[in-house]
Amino acid sequence: MSAMKLILAPMEGLADDVLRGVLTGAGGYDWCVTEFVRVTDAVLPHRCYTRLSPELANGARTAAGTPVRVQLLGNDPAMLAANAAHLARLHPFGIDLNFGCPTPLVVRHRGGAALLDEPELLHRIAAAVRAAVPATMPVTAKMRLGIDDTSKALDCALALESGGINELVVHARTKADGYKPVRRWEWVARIREVVKLPLIANGEVWTVADWHAIRAASGCDDVMLGRGAVADPLLARRIRGQAATEPSDDNWREIETMLGDFWTRVERKVLPAQSPGRLKQWLGLMQRRYPQAERLFQTVREARLGPEVSAILQREGVIAKSRAVA
User: Fold this and answer.
1) Is the pTM of the predicted complex or chain greater than 0.90?
2) Residues with Cβ within 8 Å of residue 223, at least 6 apart in sequence
3) Distance from first CA to last CA of the chain, Å, rounded?
4) Are 35 and 52 within 8 A, CB to CB?
5) DSSP characters for 237-304?
6) Cα separation of 158 and 190, whole Å?
7) SS3 state of residue 7
């Protein structure tokens, strides 16, 4: 158990620095990965990276001390390498390459999972980025199993390995699968048979039982947690035996403290008209594991502005009266 690793996944539009900070503060993670930085035809200024990952100003660690890797997305090996070299000057814990994002906008612009039909391009990207950054800096990648099918999954993994990446996360779904409850965990095991680099299994891990199942099916010791970690902020600790296997009423008080911390950080970061959506998004996922989250979601559902939500959270005891916005 002590040798296995748990990683908090990059989740575009969900796990920004605020949620990363709160989730890693709950404990249990070996490192986490940012949302992607889109690379096109220019070397981005450092502020693009520090805005996405304020942790870079804290030794590339969250407030809880969890190391942070920064993820890049693009299709131009030379531009990705140039940006990686520029980013390396900020000393991230590592650089991750996105070959898994299935969103239509990203795929339309030939990014993320759209590249999984081109193993040779994956190789050139990995090799270019690996050569552009210090040898001591981890370069990792996250891939899905393919676009519409798994026919090139092995070729993609081998291409990335030969390109020199240090670790590979395999999200056990195709682009076409999206986020449907599909579990192609056996394909991670097939990839393990042909590559020698460390593999990290990912996809549809919502519970401790799921964690046991994905490890058994994939043969991987290390697992990346995504939406399951958002739905249950204590999941990493449950897996490590530091909390009860299933959520309980006793857990909810700690979750409320986390929600209060999250809300404070969100209010500092976004406009009052945008902040309620952030809280509703998290509660919406947490409803899957906590009935208390469902009740709180229904309570804040109609609120449109931050002060309205603050008043509700104060009334519900999630935040202290002194912190509620008048």
Assistant:
1) yes
2) 4, 5, 6, 7, 200, 201, 202, 205, 211, 214, 215, 239
3) 48
4) yes
5) HHHTTSS-SS--HHHHHHHHHHHHHHHHHHHHHS-TTTHHHHHHHHHHHHTTT-HHHHHHHHHHTT--
6) 12
7) strand
The span from the CA of 147 to the CA of 115, in Å, is 8
Domains (ranges, CATH) in the chain? 6-239 (3.20.20.70), 249-323 (1.20.225.30)
- Degrees, nearest 5: CA angle 196-202-203: 145
Q: Report the C-alpha gap between 300 and 195 in whole angstroms.
A: 48
Q: At what angle do helices 249-269 and 306-315 cross, to 10 degrees?
A: 150
DSSP string, 28-59: --SEEEEEEEE--SSPPPHHHHHHH-GGGGGT
Q: How far apart are alpha carbons 151 and 214 in whole angstroms?
A: 21
* pLDDT surpassing 50 at residue 225: yes
The arithmetic mean of pLDDT across residues 266-294, rounded, is 96
Q: Read off the tokens for 19.
A: 């949620």
Is 156 a catalytic site residue?
no
* Tokens standing for residue 127: 């090799």
In this prediction, residue 140 carries a pLDDT of: 98
Active-site entry in 32, 48, 101, 220: 101
